[in-house]
Amino acid sequence: MRRTIVRLPQDNPNDTKALLVEWLHKDQLLVEKGSIICLVESTKAIYEVEAEVCGYLIPLLDAGKEAAVGDVIAVLSESEKDTVELVQSWIMDSTIEIASNVQFDQSLDLSLVHKATKKAEMRAKELGVNLENMPIIEGRITEKHVLDFYKNIGKHPASPVQHASEANLIIRMDVYPEQYMQKVLIVGAGTGSVQIIDALKDSKTQVPVAMLDDTPEFLGKSVMSVPIIGGIRKELVLGLLAKGEIDAVVIAITHNHMDFRMKLFMDWKESGVPFANIIHEKAHVASNVSMGQGNIILSQAYIGPSTKMGGNNFISSNVSIDHHCQLGDCCAFGPGVVTSGCVTIGSNVMFGTGIFVEPRVAIGSNSVVASGCIITKSVPDFSHVKHHSNITVHTRG
Amino acid sequence: MDALAKKDDTYLDSLRSSLHEIFAHDERVLLLGEDVLDPYGGAFKVTKGLSEKFPGRVVPSPICEASLVGLGVGLSLRGMRPIIEIMFGDFITLAADQLINHAAKFSGMYAGQVEVPLVVRTPMGAGRGYGPTHSQSLEKMFFGIPNLKVVAPSLWHSPGELLKQAVRDNGPVLFVEHKMLYPLVLGCGRGIIHVESDSDETYPVSYVRNYDESDQADVVVITYGGISRFIEALLIRLFDEEIRCLFILPSHINNRNLPIEALQKVHGAGRVVVVEEGTSGFGWCAEIAKQIYELYFDKLLMPIVTVAAKDCVIPSNLSMEKDVIVTEDNISDAIYKVLGI
What does the alpha-carbon distance between residue B72 and residue A177 come to, in Å, rounded to a whole number? Predict the structure, then answer.
């Protein structure tokens, strides 16, 4: 039960005590905040004491009696059932500590205390964090909460989607409000997913919210705080899209499962599933580049000007696809694949690592290029490009 | 000089005990004022016990502020160290000619052949509902008068030590006390509150903050005198909001240059609030802001926010008075404004 103490105020520096003349209300009457509750006489004048809060008045000093400045003369209680006896024993028991210069007890009205501290508000404003998007915690939101949230913004579930009905459409950034983060579902919880989560680490526009994987033991676990919520099922994905829990999908499964990747992409795309492009902020995509959906372009990769590419291509770090190239769908590049300008690559082509391609070479669809090849002439579809070298391996002696 | 107070002394205790010490140490010191004799001991009790202890050196007078200060000027010209008490700061207007055209001028007009080591003490300030002519902060009328020092002890200084310094001063000092501060216990560092003093200065600057030395302030508030009564509660409230706030309290308030150490602290924070109790416009805040802008314009993150009383007559009615004078909430609002929230 909340009780506010009323103390005898100091009228002037000369008086250390005063006389209570009369109470202006009957006991236990509900008084409004600001109303006069009693009259007090000092050596100079009779003055009025106001109620600091609304409450039931319980006087503790009889009219006609003197009290010292600072003495408790009444209590304003929040309950009409409160009595003088209860209040007096409460005062005895309480360890209320009042700051030396405060003359009225200010019991804190908690509804007035804002959820976030002012510093947290300040920081949120600077960083463009919407406090309403933050997870609900006990106690106040502090500056540290805001900074942690900002740093790890991908680890927290995002706010409800405002455009659920449009989730099945091709992704258009002009449809989303300025601070909206595209919620990405990652297919495959292997090493590819880690690369995707890393690529989105500092993204201000995309956040990985969930993963799918067919390994039964993975269900309910998470990778870098992104939870694995089910197996790789189209119906599940369509359901999540309809409910607005995800906006788009990306396939993290790579080289070893080229066919699976391609089939999944084609099938789901036909059913209207939108795919997200994941581009690391340290990748360099030059001018006039066009691409489809579902591409993954990792750190230090380079796509030269006026290159066109399709969708669902996995481009590892330090891959360089130079200017005026053409790339189909569903290809996979190991690290360190470097093409020259005007190279044409079909669909479903798998590249190893450390490969160089000369200008104006065409590499046909469904091909495999082994690591270390330097391709100087075009190759047809369904090619397997290997090179023979004199690298030998002996045990050191 | 121990610029910070003894624990648990009130502002009044510090002044009163200091007066006794001053009288004991220097025979040249006299006090003149209205109602200053024991047993009454002055309207605010500052001189209680003095006339009994030092008979003949505490001189009561009728209501004549101009004569009181005039007598003070004469006494100081003749080698005494008089302290003149003006009962309410509002009445200082009656002594303005003596202070401005006599006390502050003679040393200069007579090429240093004479000195006027005069102290005029008076309480300013509102908050008791004493009405328009008993609640003002008129010290702003005496800023910018050459050779006249205005000294205002805050709750975070030792008023007694500052008074001793004013008496030692060879020039005239207008010593501005505050009626709301008299019964309050002097501030001291405890819990989250840290207090420091700039002891290199003759009239020290006090620094009061709610964060560790190793941190940087989010905001610096510069103020003096009676406004210091809000500092403790404000610092606690701001601490709960994670706002690191530093209050800078000069005591020699019409110093043409803010001390370097004070300015350096301003420099770090980049956000400044200046508060005075006087009416807004053409006052202390404008001067302090000017000094800061001249030196640190490019270090400021926001324009300086100032807080002062409303530009109108102070009402007698307590709740109406609150609407006009500077309150704790006015200061916290200004702090949030300069922080951009």
Answer: 74
Nearest by CB: A13 against B45, B240, B336: B45
Q: What is the ipTM of this complex?
A: 0.80
Would you say B155 and B228 are in contact if contact means Cβ atoms under 8 Å apart? Answer: yes
Give which of A281, A258, A261, A279 is closest to A352, Cα–Cα. Answer: A258
Give the global pTM. 0.59
Residue B324 DSSP SS3: helix
* Identity of the residue numbered A108: L
Q: Is A40 helix (H, G, I), strand (E, B) or coil?
A: strand
Angle between helices A234-243 and A258-270 (to 10 degrees): 50
- Residue A42 with chain B: CB contacts under 8 Å: none
Min distance B8 CA to chain A CA atoms (Å):
10
**B257-301: per-residue pLDDT in tens?**
877 777 777 767 889 999 999 999 999 999 999 999 988 888 888
The beta-carbon neighbor of B341 closest among A12, A14, A122 is: A122
The Cα–Cα gap between A39 and B133 comes to 25
Q: Where are the beta strands (DSSP E) in chain B?
A: 29-33, 58-60, 81-85, 119-124, 149-151, 173-178, 194-197, 206-209, 219-222, 245-249, 272-279, 305-309
d(CA B29, CA A236): 94
Helix (H, G, I), strand (E, B) or coil at A190: coil
For B42, nearest residue in chain A (alpha carbons): A14
Residue B3 pLDDT > 70: no
pLDDT tens-digit profile of B176-191?
Answer: 999 999 999 999 999 9
Which of A29-33, A135-139, A290-294, B167-171 is predicted least confidently?
A135-139
Whose CA is closest to A355, among A326, A308, A315, A328?
A315
Task: Give the type of residue at B316.
Answer: S
Q: Is A38 helix (H, G, I), strand (E, B) or coil?
A: strand
H helices within B121-253, ranges in order? 159-168, 231-240
pLDDT for B6:
62
A3 close to A90: Cβ distance less than 8 angstroms: yes
Provide the token pair at B304: 């300086």
What phi, psi does B309 have (nearest 5°)? -70, 160
Measured between beta carbons, the chain A residues lying within 8 angstroms of B340 are 122, 125
Q: Phi/psi at B232 (nearest 5 deg)?
A: -60, -50
Best to test chain B binding among A101, A106, A109 (most B CBs inside 10 Å): A101
**Cα angle at A47 between A45 and A48, to 5 degrees?**
170
Inform me whether the C-beta atom of residue B59 falls under 8 Å from chain A C-beta atoms: no
Please state, in angstroms and rounded to a whole number, the distance separating the CA atoms of residues A299 and B311.
62
pLDDT digits (tens, 9 = 90+) for B80-133: 999 999 999 999 999 999 999 999 999 999 999 999 999 999 999 999 889 999
Distance, in Å, from the CA atom of B299 to the CA atom of B295, rounded to the nearest integer, reads: 9
Question: What's the length of chain B?
Answer: 341
Name the phi and psi angles at A195, rounded to 5: -65, -35
**Pairwise CA distance, residues A217 & A215, whole Å:** 6
**Which two three-digit tokens encode residue A9?**
């105020």
Residue A165, pLDDT > 60, answer no
State the distance between the two ends of chain B, measured CA to CA, in whole angstroms: 41
Average pLDDT, chain B: 93
Strand B206-209, strand B194-197: pairing: antiparallel
